[in-house]
Amino acid sequence: MNLGPLHHIGIAVPRIEDALPFYRDTLGLPAEPVRELADQRVRVTFLGGDRQRIELIEPVDRESGVAKFLAERGRPTLHHVCYVVDDLAATLARLGSDGVELIDRTPRRGAEGMVAFIHPRASGGVLIELIDRASLHDATWGSEEQGPLGAERRPPRPIP
Description:
With 160 residues, this protein is of the alpha+beta class. Helix content is 21%, strand content 30%. It is built from 4 helices and 8 strands, in the order βαβββαβαβββα.
């Protein structure tokens, strides 16, 4: 498997509005608009630039996976680490054949492209998200053509 560069880290927070001032105002990271991902029952915003990116993730109801994650920990905390891969479907097939425990066996729509998660039991307790490099540069991502995200697509960032 060829693991690409770090794309972002995800931090689970009870309310984006409460966490945002620290990252945006104190650390000076530019913030993107908050978007709701209804199918995942979360609201997200990305902060930072090309070299470092942080995703703040807020649950929209108490039954979402992120809400349960926060309830277990009792405070905002690191949720996942996301890496870019060249061919997500092939990567998942290889990981599966190697016996790696996956949450997603096939790619699914994420906030910024096609994604899949490796179960924390397989990676020493860390939730790992993989994002398909090609989907990062899909000009239709988030459009009506692509699905219900409805978020305006910003220009693609260069991924080393």
